[in-house]
């Protein structure tokens, strides 16, 4: 599956399966997973005091190298992950092993403190990665944080809140992304974490329709409104956190277990395969060599299998139980129906603080 592709709205080909290079902190082995998840939520809110936690030195570069050698042809990174030097080393190991640059689809993302200077962010990423272009460059989140704040990536106010530039209009960031297309440093541009509301605001002003919207997506958060909207507008969906992020909390979902038994595969294979009939690219992340390899083995789910997973999603929706695992504390209402809290901003103006 990793060698199969979709075609983006500008003709560029993108693999169906990719390797995620977001390596957040590893759960301490002494903590039971339930306690870890509880603790992680609290720690997540504190993030920014020290920046993103780093994986052990060498872990990212070796995982990227293992992934490339195992057959992955898409590597998903971001400036904000703070590890693009290591991703670059992993890429280089792959190139040294004979894999050609033009056969690897490299993704990076413009971080919120660079919303008014996206080319600068891109240049920093390219330098770290050791590349002269990325295949896809995304707006990571539709928000701006203070470029002159107390941290390069996670500036905070004295009260601990993220240092947001409320006057910033996310469609201005998109205009800068459009300008990158003429530089030769990107093959395609897109967004990430855009709801239907935000996409509508962007499309009202855009000269170039985003090629991609990268969103959290799995049977416990199908985001069918966003997926359908993207499909109608020719925007390709990339699904992130398909296993439910750290620890893979979706492995025990009843239809996932049932389909894993039917196909005699790991539950992860079902959760990754779910996206292929939906027409999306799916990103898998693992630090573990055998899992990196195991995650390449997707299955062809039938329409009936997909229906089973969709029914599970719909039931959770009716019960108000959709679960979003990645929602950083920006304090903004980004327009996702399951996250109605936070400040509503539009066109650089605060509309409501509900
Ligand atoms: N645009 C955005 O805002 C975001 C983008 N992303 C992208 O999506 C990628 C994937 O999402 P991510 O949040 O990392 O989470 P995933 O849903 O991919 O889950 C990763 C977790 O699942 C475990 N795992 C992986 N494979 C298996 C397996 N076969 N069996 C059992 N456990 C497994 C990993 O463990 P271990 O590593 O210990 O093996 C890790 O704990 C990221 O790396 C990043 O590239 C993610 C979040 C936000
Ligand atoms: O891409 C993954 C996620 O979006 C991650 O980059 C953010 O959650 C970031 O760590 C933050 O705290 O805002």
TrEMBL record:
Protein name: NADP-dependent oxidoreductase domain-containing protein
InterPro entries in alphabetical order: AKR, Aldo/ket_reductase_CS, NAD(P)_OxRdtase_dom_sf, NADP_OxRdtase_dom
Residue intervals of the NADP-dependent oxidoreductase domain: 51-312
PROSITE patterns noted in UniProt: ALDOKETO_REDUCTASE_1, ALDOKETO_REDUCTASE_2, ALDOKETO_REDUCTASE_3
One term of GO molecular function: oxidoreductase activity, acting on the CH-OH group of donors, NAD or NADP as acceptor
Entry-linked PANTHER family: ALDO/KETO REDUCTASE
Gene3D superfamilies from the UniProt entry: NADP-dependent oxidoreductase domain
Active site: 81
Organism of derivation: Thyridium curvatum
């Amino acid at each position: 599956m990793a060698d199969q592709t979709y075609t983006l709205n500008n003709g560029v080909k993108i693999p169906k399966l990719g390797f995620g290079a977001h390596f957040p902190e590893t759960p301490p082995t002494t903590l039971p997973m339930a306690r870890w998840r509880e603790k992680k939520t609290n720690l997540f809110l504190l993030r920014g005091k020290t920046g993103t936690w780093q994986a052990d030195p060498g872990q990212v570069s070796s995982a990227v190298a293992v992934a490339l050698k195992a057959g992955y042809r898409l590597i998903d990174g971001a400036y904000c992950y703070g590890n693009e030097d290591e991703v670059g080393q992993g890429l280089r190991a792959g190139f040294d092993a004979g894999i050609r640059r033009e056969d690897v689809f490299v993704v990076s993302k413009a971080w919120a403190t660079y919303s008014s200077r996206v080319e600068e962010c891109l240049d920093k990423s390219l330098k770290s990665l050791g590349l002269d272009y990325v295949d896809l460059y995304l707006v990571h989140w539709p928000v701006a944080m203070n470029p002159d704040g107390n941290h390069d990536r996670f500036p905070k106010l004295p009260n601990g809140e993220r240092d947001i530039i409320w006057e910033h209009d996310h469609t201005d960031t998109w205009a800068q992304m459009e300008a990158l297309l003429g530089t030769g440093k990107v093959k395609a541009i897109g967004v990430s974490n855009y709801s239907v509301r935000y996409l509508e605001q962007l499309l009202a002003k855009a000269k170039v329709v985003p090629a991609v919207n990268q969103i959290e997506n799995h049977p416990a958060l199908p985001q069918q409104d966003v997926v359908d909207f993207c499909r109608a507008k020719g925007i390709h969906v990339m699904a992130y956190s398909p296993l439910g992020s750290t620890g893979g909390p979706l492995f025990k979902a009843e239809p996932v277990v049932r389909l894993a038994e039917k196909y005699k595969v790991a539950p992860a294979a079902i959760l990754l395969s779910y996206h292929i009939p939906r027409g999306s690219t799916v990103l898998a992340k693992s630090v573990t060599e055998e899992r990196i390899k195991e995650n390449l083995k997707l299955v062809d789910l039938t329409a009936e299998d997909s229906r089973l997973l969709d029914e599970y999603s719909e039931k959770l929706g009716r019960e108000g139980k959709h679960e979003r695992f990645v929602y950083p504390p920006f304090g903004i209402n980004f327009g996702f129906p399951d996250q109605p809290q936070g400040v509503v901003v539009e066109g650089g103006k605060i509309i409501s603080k509900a």
